[in-house]
Design brief:
By secondary structure, the protein is α+β, with helices and mostly antiparallel strands. The chain is 18% helix and 42% strand.
């Protein structure tokens, strides 16, 4: 191999490294973050329709304990899930920080009640943690992926699994 080939190979390696670096540093999506208890969760922004307070909830008999009932959002009847109940946490009284996040997946709209909305974070490939599924750590089937950020780990939820989780389908048949 002569010096020109060596130089060309070195330049090619630099380009590959730069492309890999740029790929890890380019924004993939954004996530709306919120608290459920002390843990920070997120939902990808393309699934979020709007954030509202906790409106009047009409209780419907015979539904799972974590579905608090239905609400009216812009003349549309929407089932609402209390995320504390869904994740097995102790229920608490709603306050001025409690929010309902209206989400949509595949044409199905659902409200999820969370303790407090934090804000929106950009997601970069470099922040996505390897899934601990293989070692039995991630037993929560609702987690889509983990974000490793400087201020801690955020659990990004899989909206499709929240809407259809094998127990029941929250949309229209």
């Amino acid at each position: 191999m002569d010096i020109k080939e060596l130089f060309a190979k070195q330049e090619e390696m630099k380009r590959k490294n730069l492309n890999a670096k740029n790929e890890k540093e380019s924004e993939i999506t954004k996530v709306l973050t919120f608290f459920i208890g002390d843990q920070v969760y997120g939902i990808e922004i393309p699934c979020v329709i709007e954030i509202i307070g906790v409106p009047h909830i009409t209780v419907v008999p015979g539904i799972p304990y974590y579905i608090k009932g239905i609400i009216n959002v812009r003349s549309k009847v929407v089932p609402v899930i209390d995320m504390r109940s869904r994740f097995g946490k102790e229920e608490k009284e709603y306050n001025e920080r409690t929010n309902t996040i209206i989400i949509e997946e595949s044409g199905v709209t659902v409200g999820v009640i969370v303790d407090e909305v934090i804000g929106v974070l950009p997601v970069y490939q470099k922040n996505i943690a390897n899934s601990p599924d293989r070692i039995g750590v991630n037993d929560n089937k609702f987690i889509k992926y983990l974000l490793e950020m400087q201020d801690g780990i955020k659990l990004v939820l899989d909206v499709a699994k929240l809407i259809y989780d094998g127990e029941m389908y929250l949309g229209d048949e």
